[in-house]
Amino acid sequence: MNYSNIVMSMFVVALVAFAWLVPSTSSVAVSSSGHHVIDQEDLVNQSREVQQEKWIHPRLRGLELWQRPSGPPHVAIQVGHLEAASAPEELRALRRNTGAQFGDVTEVSVNQNIARQTKELLEARGVKVTLLPVTIPPNFYADVFLAVHADGSENVAANGYKIAAPRRDASGNAPVLVDFLEKSYGQQTGLVRDPKVTWNMIGYYAFNWRRYDHSMHPLSAAAIVETGFLTNAGDRKVIVEQPEKSALGIVGGVVAYLEAEDLL
After folding, report:
1. Are 187 and 252 in contact (CB under 8 A)?
2. Domains contained in the chain, number
3. CATH code, 230
């Protein structure tokens, strides 16, 4: 038997099989060392395709073409914890959250008094104002969205107001709004600023349009205002006994912001 012929035949078969298995050189390049390497042009093209196919949140689609509704400046004021029991299923965790309380004074009543006086003062300046409860209409737009709350603590010495912008701010204007509000509120009320802004404030559900349908429009400039501590005697003298001071503080900040944006 001629073993050399057999070996040669096996070598030819192996070469044919290898030719079928190796990809075309249009997608694979060969280095000088003989190793197969990925074609760089293909890598660039694949990267471009991935970038083009990145997922975009439905509420962000088309915002580059979005235009502000015509008409006077519009401010929405949410009364913290108002009608919490009627929250929709996606916000069911809020239904039993009635807010802070001191004696017979509830946070909801404090929030309502401040919100109503703020509304009256803004309307006198030609601003359209909408008062909202816990449940916000889906994708609700206003030039300014404010959530009005009051703090509470087991430590009766805890005091001061704090104001925060959303953690994610598509409008780009929330920090400016907060700056105006902090300056005005401190001047009008005489209360100290509490620097301890919480995660629950910057992640407030009404700001979280990525997760909840019942939340504000991404381009609304928004802030949450903790007007003071209901459990502190000094703060109560303002937010309970003289709520007009809190209202004036909020109005001053909102008006300054609207004027800076040429909306008023």
Report:
1. yes
2. 2
3. 3.40.630.40
Nearest CA among 207, 181, 177, 201 for reference residue 193: 181
Give 216's strand partners: 140
Q: How far apart are CA 148 and CA 48, in angstroms?
A: 45
Helix axes of 243-260 and 107-123: crossing angle, nearest 10 degrees: 50
Cα–Cα distance, 25 to 215 (Å, whole number):
54
Task: Please give the Cα distance from 162 to 103 (Å, whole number).
Answer: 23
Structural domain includes residue 120: yes
Q: What residues contact residue 84 under an 8 Å CB cut-off, 6+ apart?
A: 94, 95, 96, 97, 98, 133, 134
Instruction: Please tell me whether residues 154 and 80 are part of one structural domain.
Output: yes
Q: In whole numbers, what is the pLDDT of the chain averaged over residues?
A: 85
Inside any domain, residue 64? no
- Residue 19: which domain range? 3-52
13: confidence class by pLDDT, cuts 50, 70, 90: very low
Q: Which of 215, 198, 196, 199 is nearest to 207 (CA)?
A: 215
**pTM greater than 0.85:** no
